[in-house]
Structures are given as C-alpha cells and as structure tokens.
Specification:
By secondary structure, the chain is α/β, with parallel strands linked by helices. The protein is built from 14 helices and ten strands.
C-alpha cells in the first residue's frame, strides 16, 4: 500500500491537539555535541504528559471520534507508553478505557495505567492481546491501535513540526526509535514533508527488531521481543508503517540493550534527563554512527520517553556491568 498520512494531515492534527499536550523542550546539547563531533539538538519528549510522545496521537484519535463512539469506550493493546497515554487521555475526556497488556509488561507501566483510571487485563503476549482486542471491538468498543492508525500517526507527527520549528535552523540528520513504526511514520511525514533532504535514521534494539525483520521479509513478521526496551517490542509491523519506513527512513540502526543502558546513565548524569531504553537507544545509535557526520552538519535526537522504574535501571546496570 501507499502511505496515507500527509504533511497536511499532521498540521491538522497539531492544530486539533494544541493546548492538550505539552510543547516539550528542544535545545542544543553541549555534551552530546562534543561526543558526536557536530552540533546536536535534543527534543526532550520524555517530559511530555504521560511520560512519552504517545498522548499526541491518542488525543488526536479520541478527539476525532463521535460522542456515540466515545460512549462505547475504547480498547487498546500496549505494554507501556501507549497504555499510559490512552488511560490519561480517556480520563481527561471522561471515556472508559480498557488496556490489554502482555504478562511481561513492566510493573511500573501496569500500575501507571491503572492509576490513571484504565481497566487493565493481562494476556499471554502481545499477539494474543491483539486477538482479544478484536473480540472487544466486535462487541462494540473502539479499538485504538497503538501505531497502525492514520489519526494516531498524524498526532505523533506534531512532534516533527515542533522539532523542525524549534531546532534553530535546518537539521541534516534525525534519529528516532522504532517500535511498530507509527511514531517514525508521523515524524517522517512532517519533517520530510518540510525538508525532503533531511536524513531520518530509525533505531531498534537487539531483540526488538520488528521493522528490520519486516522490511527484510517484505511483509509483517510476528516477533516476540526479548529486549529490555519493552516499549519497542511491537509484535509486528504493518503494511502502513512499512510503507512509511520505505518512504522516510534512511536506514535502521540496531543497538545492544547494554548500550541503551549505558546512555540512560550518561544522559541522567550529564544532561539531568531521565530516559527509558527506547529513548536512550537513539543516543547510542548516533554515537555508533558518528563517523558519517560531516563538518558543519546538525543532528537531532528524539528522546521519546521516560517511563522507567529506577529499580529496573539499577538491575540493568548490574546485569550489563554498566
């Protein structure tokens, strides 16, 4: 299929959700600029409401539903950030939310979703959760897919508009993490729509290579993630997100979990910003590919979320010797 979200769709979504979300900071990072050898700008989306970019798409989706649809309640599948965002947005709008989470979801994320008012059901894994979501949708609930939905994608793309506007000049490279691919799709539609010469680099972690495997196979491939970056552990890409990846993504860089943990520690110590592995892996990817940067180029890093328990970080540091 052809990718079906345009720059105009993203701009319309940004206007719709204005005032509902936080315009997160974009600024020059002296420490990362020194490490990467070129001027580096960070988009600190880890400070977003709900701890990640996900509220952007969720507000756009739910605000586009009719009163009758909202009255039926929403159901979604997520192991983390999308679950938290759906819970937060649904509570804000007075809508019932049911979240289906795989049994291996982080306890921190399960409790966050519940504390925001969502009903949570645990399932064997994400694949079985999607099957159960289909059952609930057949009974009348609205399935809010975490990444294969034009309204979700367009809402996420609002981050790209902010980054392009707030970066203090054009960027040559942008690094963004990929789970199911909806986030990168929206940001790609926005930023490549504004500047076709921009090079966008996708990032995955070992054990969560959903998009890498799908593109290699030429079709969605079911996976069971083994990465600590649980919020990247989408069980499959889709034809829509694969089309976006082909259209907007220069390449996909896969980094070890240990390097993501190393960058969590570095950014917290040196930048005073808490990141989850799905965000820290972007820093690790830029570091791994810094030889490709040319003098005078400018790099943007999208730090997408901060939903992580400090106890987990401590355990990972011990596990990987970081």
């Amino acid at each position: 299929m052809n990718f079906d979200v345009t720059l105009g769709d993203v701009q319309a979504a940004a206007a719709r959700i204005a005032g509902k979300i936080r315009r997160t900071p974009t600024y020059h990072s002296a420490g990362l600029s020194a490490r990467l050898g070129v001027e580096t700008v960070v988009k600190v989306e880890s400070l977003q409401l709900g701890g990640s970019f996900k509220v952007r798409g969720c507000f756009n989706k739910l605000m586009s539903l009719s009163e009758a649809e909202l009255g039926r309640g929403v159901v979604t599948v997520s192991g983390g950030n999308h679950a938290i965002a759906v819970a937060l947005v649904a509570r804000t709008m007075g809508v019932r939310a049911l979240v289906l989470m795989p049994a291996n979801a982080a306890a921190f994320n399960v409790e966050m979703a519940r504390s925001l008012g969502a009903e949570v059901e645990l399932t064997e894994d994400s694949i079985s959760a999607f099957a159960r979501a289909d059952d609930y949708a057949a009974r009348g609930m609205i399935h809010v897919h975490s990444y294969d939905d034009p309204a979700i994608i367009a809402g996420h793309g609002s981050l790209g508009l902010e980054l392009a506007n707030d970066a203090g000049g054009r960027l040559d490279h942008v690094f963004i993490s990929i789970g199911g691919g909806g986030f990168a799709a929206g940001v790609g539609a926005a930023m490549k729509g504004l500047d076709p010469a921009l090079r966008i680099h996708g990032v995955e972690t070992d054990g969560a290579t959903t998009m890498t495997q799908a593109l290699a196979a030429g079709k969605p491939v079911p996976i069971r993630s083994t990465s600590i970056a649980r919020t990247l552990g989408a069980p499959f890409a889709t034809e829509r997100t694969m089309a976006a990846a082909r259209q907007f993504i220069e390449d996909i860089i896969v980094v070890p979990d240990a390097e993501a943990v190393r960058e969590i520690t570095w950014v917290l110590q040196n930048g005073r910003v808490l990141l989850e592995p799905a965000a820290a892996c972007v820093v690790a990817a830029a570091q791994a590919r810094k030889e490709m940067f040319k003098p005078g180029e400018r790099v943007g890093l999208v730090l997408c979320g901060s939903n992580v328990a400090l106890d987990d970080i401590a355990a990972w540091r011990t596990q990987f010797g970081v």
